[in-house]
C-alpha cells in the first residue's frame, strides 16, 4: 500500500514511461539501452521498463560488482537479466577502483573512495553504450534526486531518467506491477559502497516516511512542521532532509559559468 498521497496508477504509469523510453531512444538514433543492474529495486524497474519499451534484444544489462557487493544482490541481478532474456555482461570493478586509488597516492576519505566506485561503474556503462550505439538508462528516483543522494558524475550521470519523477515508494509499487520479485521490491535501499552500507546510514529516515515528508515539502509546498506531522517524523529529521537538498543543489544544476 502506498503512503497517503503517493498512490499511482501503475498500468498508466508503465504505458507513459514506455512511450517516453521509445521516443527518447528513437530520437537519439540509438540501437537500444544499457542498464546497470545492482539487484536493487530502482535498476530492476528501469530494466523491466526498458525491456517492455525496446524488446529484450535491444537492452544490455551490466553487472558491475565491487568487493562490497553482497552475493544476494549479484544473484538477484543475474536472475532479473535471465528472466527478461537480455544479454548481460559482468565486469568486476574492484581491480580498477584499487588501481585508480593507488595511482593517486592518496588514501582519501571513505566517501571519496565510495564515489570512485560509482564513477567507475558509469565509465564502464558508457564504454559499452558507445561501443554498441546504446543510451545509458539512469536509475535514479525522485527521492534520491531531491536529496542529492547520488554520486555526481557517477550514478547521477545518464542519457535519460525513466523513474526520476517517482518517489522510492512509488517505484516499489511499480516494481510489483511489473512482476519484479518480491524480495527485490522489498529489499532495503543499500548503495553498498562500503561493507554493510545502507541508505539509512546517511538519510534522516526510512523512505516510507521520508517520501511523505518530501511530498509535503516539494509537491504540496507545506512547511516543515506540517511535513513532519504528516510523515510522523521529528522536525529535526525533516530539517535534515531540507539541508541535504540545499547542500546538493550543485548536483542538480549545470556547472556555473560566467556569461
Characteristics of this structure?
4-stranded parallel sheet; 2 domains; 259 residues; single chain; Rossmann fold; 52% helix; alpha/beta
Plain-language structure description:
By secondary structure, this protein is α/β, with parallel strands linked by helices. The protein has 2 domains: 10-199, HUPs (Rossmann fold); 203-252. It has 11 helices and 4 strands, in the order αβαβαβααβαααααα. The chain has helices at residues 10-27, 41-54, 71-84, 94-104, 110-132, 142-147, 168-177, 182-185, 207-219, 224-231, 235-247; strands at residues 32-36, 59-63, 87-90, 134-136. Strands 3-2-1-4 form a 4-stranded parallel beta sheet, sandwiched between helices. Helix 2 (41-54) links the parallel strand 1 and strand 2. Helix 4 (94-104) crosses helix 5 and helix 9 (207-219) runs antiparallel to helix 10. The longest helix has 23 residues, at 110-132.
Helix content: 40-55%
DSSP helix count? 11
Series of H and E elements: HEHEHEHHEHHHHHH
Measured between the Cα atoms of the first and last residue, the distance is 49 Å
Give the CATH superfamily of the largest domain. Answer: HUPs
CATH-defined fold name of the largest domain: Rossmann fold
Instruction: Give the spatial strand order of the biggest sheet.
Output: 3-2-1-4
Report the oligomer.
Answer: single chain
Rg, Cα atoms, Å = 18 Å
Under CATH at level 1, the class of the largest domain stands as Alpha Beta
The structural domain count equals 2
CATH-derived architecture of the largest domain: 3-Layer(aba) Sandwich
Structural class: alpha/beta
Number of strands: 4
Mean pLDDT across the residues is: 94
Major sheet: 4 strands, parallel
Low-pLDDT regions: none
Percent of sequence in beta strands: 5-15%
Amino acid at each position: 500500500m502506498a503512503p497517503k498521497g503517493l498512490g499511482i496508477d501503475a498500468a498508466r504509469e508503465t504505458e507513459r514511461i514506455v512511450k517516453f523510453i521509445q521516443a527518447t531512444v528513437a530520437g537519439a538514433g540509438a540501437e537500444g539501452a544499457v542498464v546497470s543492474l545492482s539487484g536493487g529495486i530502482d535498476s530492476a524497474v528501469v530494466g523491466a521498463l526498458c525491456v517492455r519499451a525496446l524488446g529484450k534484444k535491444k537492452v544490455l544489462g551490466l553487472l558491475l560488482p565491487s568487493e562490497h557487493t553482497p552475493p544476494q544482490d549479484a544473484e538477484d541481478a543475474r536472475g532479473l537479466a535471465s528472466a527478461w532474456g537480455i544479454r548481460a555482461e559482468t565486469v568486476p570493478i574492484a581491480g580498477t577502483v584499487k588501481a585508480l586509488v593507488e595511482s593517486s597516492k592518496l588514501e582519501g576519505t571513505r566517501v571519496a573512495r565510495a564515489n570512485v566506485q560509482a564513477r567507475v561503474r558509469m565509465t564502464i556503462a558508457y564504454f559499452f553504450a558507445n561501443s554498441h550505439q546504446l543510451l545509458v538508462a539512469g536509475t535514479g528516483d525522485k527521492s534520491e534526486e531531491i536529496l542529492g543522494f547520488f554520486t555526481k558524475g557517477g550514478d547521477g550521470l545518464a542519457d535519460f531518467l525513466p523513474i526520476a519523477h517517482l518517489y522510492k515508494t512509488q517505484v516499489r509499487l511499480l516494481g510489483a506491477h511489473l512482476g519484479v520479485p518480491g524480495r527485490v521490491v522489498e529489499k532495503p535501499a543499500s548503495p553498498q559502497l562500503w561493507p554493510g552500507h545502507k541508505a539509512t546510514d546517511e538519510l534522516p529516515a526510512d523512505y516510507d516516511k521520508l517520501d511523505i515528508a518530501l511530498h509535503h515539502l516539494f509537491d504540496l509546498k507545506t512547511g516543515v512542521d506540517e511535513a513532519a506531522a504528516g510523515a510522523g517524523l521529528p522536525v529535526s529529521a525533516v530539517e535534515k532532509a531540507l539541508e541535504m537538498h540545499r547542500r546538493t543543489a550543485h548536483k542538480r544544476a549545470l556547472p556555473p559559468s560566467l556569461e
